[in-house]
Specification:
7-stranded antiparallel β-sheet, 2 domains, 6 helices
């Protein structure tokens, strides 16, 4: 019996439904496309990172070769460059410099820069630092030493050095070793606005807290720790390089270099000293210039110095 639902009301033959063609299977390429793009991005990023890594190593090798041709031999022991995927990280087991006037050696050093900001370099150095220069032998230690350098196409933007618990000893300058220590040290440098390109001027800011110098304490008669602040501008600073001290000082002098002290403040117990002025060096590399000084609480020190030179009676008069 024919299904009534299939019968035509006019009594004609039933209408058969049109045949539906089978659907083609849906492509799954769209499901994998994000992963394919991600893989391509990883490959491109990795290739770029290895290119930057190779470029950094090449630049370093070139700089070391140029320094060696000038008589300065730099060594980065056990050098490695890593930091993948977002950083370029240089590690040296130790850093040493040998030149005509002495030898210098620093402990393990790490320098890091982000791939997307390669001109901003952060540095972490472990002690000790050792120097041999003529009859002088110096050693320095610290608990933390960090530095940063923000470079630019025409120089730099800012450089900073932060040191906790620095301690320095120098032997050979006097019969007894000279020892200086402090709780904290900060040094910041930046190009002097409007004068860096024309005069090579660099602004310096130094902060030294809780400094101890036993040899100076014996002279001053006060063992209190000292706090020092200095704000100054070094003219012709761009002439200074990594050559010998005498050579670099002579180049700086001939270029008309000077140190313009905007503010120097020293506090040691109840004693206070403030100064400002301008300093340079003469042909014998001796300091010359003029400083305007203001002092408080130094009467006993002046009396002691005058007494040693002119006699106790005059020293007592000055002290009173």
């Amino acid at each position: 019996m024919q299904d009534p639902a299939r019968q035509d009301p006019s009594g004609r033959a039933p209408i058969e439904p049109a045949a539906v063609p089978p659907r083609a299977p849906r492509s799954r390429r769209g499901l994998f496309m994000p992963y394919i793009l991600l893989l391509a991005l990883v490959v491109l990023w990795s290739a770029g990172w290895f290119y930057v890594r190779g470029r950094a190593a090449s630049e370093m090798d070139g700089w070391i070769a140029r320094e060696a041709s000038a008589g300065r031999t730099w060594t980065c022991a056990d050098r490695s460059i890593g930091g993948y995927p977002f950083r370029i990280e240089l590690r040296c087991g130790s850093v040493s410099l040998a030149r005509a006037d002495g030898r210098f050696r620093l402990g393990p050093l790490t320098a890091v820069a982000q791939v997307y900001q390669p001109r901003h370099v952060l540095m972490l150095a472990e002690g000790p630092f050792h120097v041999e220069q003529g009859d002088l032998v110096g050693d320095a230690t610290w608990t933390m030493l960090e530095g940063s350098f923000h470079g630019a196409s025409d120089g730099f933007v800012r450089a900073s050095l932060v040191v906790d618990a620095p301690s320095v000893t120098v032997a050979g300058a006097t019969p007894d070793p000279i020892a200086v220590s402090a709780r904290h040290l900060e040094l910041h440098a930046r190009p002097t606005p409007g004068r860096f390109e024309s005069d090579g001027a660099v602004d310096l800011s130094l902060r030294l807290s809780q400094a101890l110098a036993p040899m100076a304490d014996a002279l001053i008669g006060n063992a209190d720790p000292a706090d020092l602040t200095l704000d100054a501008t070094v003219d012709r600073a761009t002439t200074l390089g990594t050559g010998t001290v005498a050579r670099e000082l002579e180049r700086w002098r001939q270029a008309g270099g000077s140190l313009d002290v905007a503010s120097l403040a020293l506090a040691k117990g109840e004693r206070r000293l403030q100064a400002k002025g301008s300093l340079g060096i003469d042909q014998g590399h001796r300091v010359e210039g003029q400083l305007d000084l203001r002092a408080a609480g130094v009467e006993s020190l002046v009396a002691a110095v005058v007494g040693q030179r002119f006699g106790a009676d005059r020293g007592a008069l000055v002290g009173n």
